[in-house]
Amino acid sequence: MKKISDSLKEFCEKQELVRFAYIDGSGYPRAVPLWFVIINDDCYVGTGATSAKRKAVELEPRVGWVIDGGERSHYKGVSERGHVEEVTNPVVRQQVYDALSVKYFGSTGHPKFVEIYGQVDDADTIYWRLIAEDRISWEY
């Protein structure tokens, strides 16, 4: 799989949203924006345990995602496809939970973050590692 440059990795880590695509319950492609973090070059997202996207991904595990941005004539991004792996290791789950809280609210355990995601071991929230099987990237 094509490697991405260090500058593109850094750019992606600073972006606010990943656009996550899956096949919905009606058989149509659906793309949704999600908060994400990158830890050790792996992209992680969280979602509700009973969400439509989780149910859809359980039926059709092939997914895609894009992290992109930039201003006119300086666009950068990565588009990947692959599958998800649920994070069940409590140590990794804590890392993802804390990293999301810091990225989006500036501190671990921020009250608004806890309101949205619950506590780290809350069964109502799951976390996925996005596992790329193919990638394209651009910097221009």
Report on the structure:
- This protein is α+β, with helices and mostly antiparallel strands and 140 residues long.
- The chain is 29% helix and 43% strand.
- The chain is built from 4 helices and 7 strands, in the order αββββαββααβ.
- The protein has helices at residues 6-14, 52-59, 90-105, 111-117; strands spanning 18-23, 29-34, 36-39, 42-48, 63-71, 74-86, 125-139.
- It starts with 5 loop residues before the first helix and ends with a strand.
Judging from the principal axes of the Cα atoms, what is the shape? globular
Tell me the structural class. alpha+beta
Q: Which ranges are low-confidence, i.e. pLDDT below 50, for 5 or more consecutive residues?
A: none
Give me the count of strands.
Answer: 7
What percentage of residues falls in helices of 4 or more residues? Answer: 25-40%
For the termini, the CA-CA separation is 20 Å
Overall pLDDT confidence: 95
Largest sheet: 7 strands, antiparallel
Attribute tags:
single chain; 140 residues; alpha+beta; Pnp Oxidase, Chain A; seven-stranded antiparallel beta sheet; 4 helices; 29% helix; globular
